[in-house]
Automatic annotation (TrEMBL):
SUPFAM superfamilies hit by this protein: Tryptophan synthase beta subunit-like PLP-dependent enzymes
Cofactor entry: pyridoxal 5'-phosphate
Top-level division of the source organism's lineage: Bacteria
Secretion signal, residue range per the UniProt entry: none
Entry-linked CDD domains: Thr-dehyd
Name assigned to this protein: Threonine/serine dehydratase
InterPro entries named among the record's database cross-references: Ser/Thr_Dehydratase, Ser/Thr_deHydtase_PyrdxlP-BS, TrpB-like_PALP, TrpB-like_PALP_sf
PROSITE patterns attached to this UniProt entry: DEHYDRATASE_SER_THR
Organism field: Mesorhizobium waimense
GO molecular function: L-serine ammonia-lyase activity; pyridoxal phosphate binding; threonine deaminase activity
Amino acid sequence: MADGILITRERIAAMEPRIRPFVRHTPVLRVDKADFGRSPLAVDLKLECLQHSGSFKARGAFTNLLERPVPAAGVVAASGGNHGAAVAYAAMRLGHKATIFVPEVSPPAKLDRIRGYGAELIVGGARYAEALAASESFAEKTGALQIHAFNQEETLVGQGTLGLEIEADLPEIDTLLVAVGGGGLIGGIAAWFAGRIRIVAVEPEGAPTLHLAFEAGRPVDAPAEGIAADSLAPKRVGEMMFPIAEAYVERSLLVSDDDIIAAQKALWDRVRIISEPGGAAAFAAVLSGRYQPAPGERVAVLVCGANANPAKF
């Protein structure tokens, strides 16, 4: 384990059996790029889009609620939608009150999930950073436990259990492509693999949070624009995940909105998988050719979220 990294394989392995009663072991589907009208290439899709609450975020949410004492005021979270849905779901399952702050760009499908899990939903602000500030103020006033979407040790450890599960499902892979917003997902997964496979980050061109951080050598502010802005566009990547990314993420690839939309549509048209734009971003890198594997390279892609309106499909 690289110096300065607090999220260890041991912590992740110890947490996995604790959250196992509350999360799904999601399936893997092998597809071929030829099925999508491209040059032949076998790709394994890890369908974390089928997780409770519609995304991988349930893992980090349950880890927080099981590892940290929850006060009578309950829990509070800021979210583009998926983290809020996960916290609301975990709170419902464990009997806690939840208050979720979301920005105005959050899609109706995600808001419906949050409400459906019984949380108090507060919509306000143009982007995630404003919802986060409002949630922090709420936590100070009420004493509610704040659960950060990505810059929290427990969140990273919880997302790291997905890396453990991927390794169990796909022990032969060489490369895993993972979408990045705030970096909690790729941070946890990279901490689990710790350099034993190639981890490649995929980001929208309109929200290159990790890409700019790599260039600067530290987390820096990035734009928050584009089709996946609701899920992959925080202001910057988390301070906790960045040392992990520097140590274990090979590089960041950028994909266009058109690439993401094409991947989202292809997943539905060819294999009937519903993915939100952010959830399809990693597959977009493969489908568009932005990621070119070496001959014989065994590639897996994480499809990480499905909170989209089915009517669009």
